[in-house]
Amino acid sequence: MISDSATRIALIYPELLGTYGDGGNAIVLAQRLRWRGLAAEVINVPAGEVVPGGCDIYLLGGGEDAPQVLAADGLRRSTSLLRAVNEGAVVLAVCAGYQVIGASFPAGDEVHDGLGLVDVETRRSFDPADQPAPPRAVGDIVVEPTSDLGLPVLLGYENHAGRTRRLAGGRGRPLGVVRKGVGNGTIDQTDGIVDHHVIGTYLHGPVLAQNPALADLLLSWVHGPLPALAEPAEIQLLRQARLRALDVAS
Amino acid sequence: MPGSDDFTVVGASLGVAPCGDVQGLCNRRDESWHADEAMTTPPPRRFSTRTRAALAVEKLASSASRRLGRGSGEMIGGKLALQVSPRILTEVAAGRMAVCVSGTNGKTTTTRLLARALGTLGPVKSNSGGANMAPGVLAALSRPPFDAAAALEVDEIWLPKVARQILPRAVVLLNISRDQLDRSNETRRIASLWRELGADLPAATVVANVDDPLVAWAASGWSNQIWVSVGQNWTADAMVCPQCARLLHRNSSGWWCDCGLARPEPIVAVTGPGELLWFGRHIRASIDLPGRVNLGNAAMAAAAAKLFGVEVADALAAMTGLDDVQGRYQEVELGESGVRGRLLLAKNPAGWVEMMELLNTAPARPVIIDFNSQTADGRDPSWIWDVPFERLAGRDVLVTGERKEDMSVRLAYAEVPHTVHPDAESAASTVFDKTVDVVANYTAFRDILGRVAPVGTTR
């Protein structure tokens, strides 16, 4: 039963864009609402179906090349996601999902059109053609978030071959500066993009499990200021353990 | 991939399994059925000079390594021998009844079951310790008798290279799912490698799982198939057609694609608990290893053994009595507390879902989850968010391991109450039950086995 007041979280094509546990982002968002006494509804959007309009938050995760192309093809068939974004919906897109919401991305030997929700483009490399392609970016990643987001350091795991850069004169700003890892893999050493309520990033983990403040930021974009949350102690214990393991001062 | 170099390996062959390399692995009745009195037999004259030299090197290196207490020695011995004689695998495999077994999950168990089935015909060599790349395979084949049958576990990525040299009579392909994403993240690439292999093995028969589209596509390119249905609990890694990259259709009776690729009709199938469809008739079938997943492994192994004339009844009878595989399903004493733990391995989402099914076939007892993320486990632990841990609600759950905090957060969001402990033994000391289940991933499992003592059999 979908109540009118429930926050609707759409998990887009989890069969295609769910290779790295990114479905966990939906679990985290829904639970953090429920723990606050707010209703939440997770809507799985099966691959190939039209993305429903009217959701508050849309989530896209990581995936291999062929599923990524299939997901982009499916998403391009409808303008519902674009319309939802124009109406203020929140989008969190991770890894292959991040590449898909940009202008274009590589898969196999071809460059495919993305959705153009954010002004970035992804290629295997932006180096001159005679340079070897950079290695796949695999490992822990730590990002110092752009300061006006008001977030503590972001932790995650990245696993991608593509490099992503902002389009010249495009909108948006980086999610943050990479302190450890690769991220966008561009000269400015940034990761991701934030454009109004749309966030793209290379951080898996799932990113919202490792970074509860980012989860609450997305929720506050829907709800405004959130009631305080007495969250399970495990969540901060994980952050402390990861900060120690990665040798990062918070 | 499983079987990486940094994993301790045990047991060069069924005949010469060394005891004591890893505690808790030596209570195996099944490995005593051929003594290694033949160790002094010279290699057959058909071997090249190079290969005879390589075999001598292998023997020296592995016994030296073993004496020095560096594992069972098969990795170092096998590596050296391959350098001395690059064609050695072809030579030592020639003329044997040989079967290669590969897949993401279940290959060690299936290989062990297959070795038992082939053992009804005579001596069998097998890399029963789980060393499943070329050196481990070679070590299994480098001791007499050189005409013994061979049941060989082979790593998914290594399979094409190894099988092109071994030229096995049969290849068993179990499943392909995500495992250690940070090393090899393309499931389709593995399927494609397997498909190409079929073209080079025209005389071989592939025993393949029809319920895994990646496996079925790979096997459909081979000359001869035995199609087996063992079910697929985990479909999330096989949603896209491996042939044309369109979305697969699924219903309760199978899967198909608009391009024409579809689930082949199986001639062998797990049709219920203790029941198989076997070449047109329904038979009762049971083995001692628990769960539907292991009956499926047994069916795959029996189908391969049938190619060599082993009757299914004889194969299943030989498999019965095997009740632990490299410590899996074994009961151990967890420290001084008197609590016993049944050891279960789950190293990826597909494996965890299988273990959930198995946990639910026994009375609900406490579960200790021991979770690491070393290189052999995959450094990225995010896959635990794909596992429906919500199903553990109502059980006593205890968490340990190097990534216990990650597991703990996963369980917190699943609203599964749990406690966190420094190790499995101290976790066990806090429960009131006499027996617990311990579900561990790769290195966590290895480490527990190295610390604890077995308590007889699991039955």
What does this structure look like?
- The complex is a heterodimer of chains A (250) and B (459).
- Chain A has helices at 24-34, 65-76, 80-86, 96-101, 207-210, 212-223, 233-245; strands spanning 7-12, 40-45, 57-60, 90-94, 104-107, 110-113, 120-123, 137-145, 154-160, 163-166, 176-180, 190-191, 193-195, 198-201.
- By secondary structure, chain A is an alpha/beta fold.
- In chain A, β13 and β14 form a beta hairpin.
- The radius of gyration of chain A is 17 Å and the shape is globular.
- The N and C termini of chain A lie far apart (42 Å).
- By secondary structure, chain B is of the alpha/beta class.
- Chain B has helices at 49-67, 74-84, 88-93, 107-118, 134-141, 159-166, 187-200, 213-220, 292-306, 312-319, 349-359, 404-413, 424-428, 442-451; strands at residues 98-102, 124-126, 149-153, 170-173, 205-209, 224-229, 249-251, 254-256, 268-272, 275-278, 281-284, 331-333, 340-345, 367-370, 397-400, 418-420, 435-440, 453-454.
- A nine-stranded mixed β-sheet of chain B has the order 2-3-1-4-5-6-9-10-11, with helices on both faces.
- In chain B, α5 links the parallel β2 and β3.
- In chain B, α4 (107-118) crosses α10, α7 (187-200) runs parallel beside α8 (213-220) and α9 (292-306) packs across α10 (312-319).
- Chain B is globular.
- Mean pLDDT of chain B is 86; it is low at 1-39.
- Classes of the chains: A alpha/beta (250), B alpha/beta (459).
- At the A-B interface, α1, α2, β8 and α7 of A face α12 of B.
Strand content of chain B: 15-25%
Main sheet record of chain A: 6 strands, mixed
Poorly predicted runs of chain B are 1-39
Distance between the termini of chain A: 42 Å
User: What is the radius of gyration of chain A?
Assistant: 17 Å
Helix content of chain A: 25-40%
What's the overall geometry of chain B?
globular
Secondary-structure content class of chain B? alpha/beta
Give the integer mean of the pLDDT values of chain B: 86
**Average residue pLDDT of chain A:** 94
Q: Which protein chains make the most extensive interface, counting residues with beta carbons within 8 Å of the other chain's beta carbons?
A: A-B, 37 and 32 residues
**Low-pLDDT segments, ≥5 res of chain A:** none
Total helical elements of chain B? 14
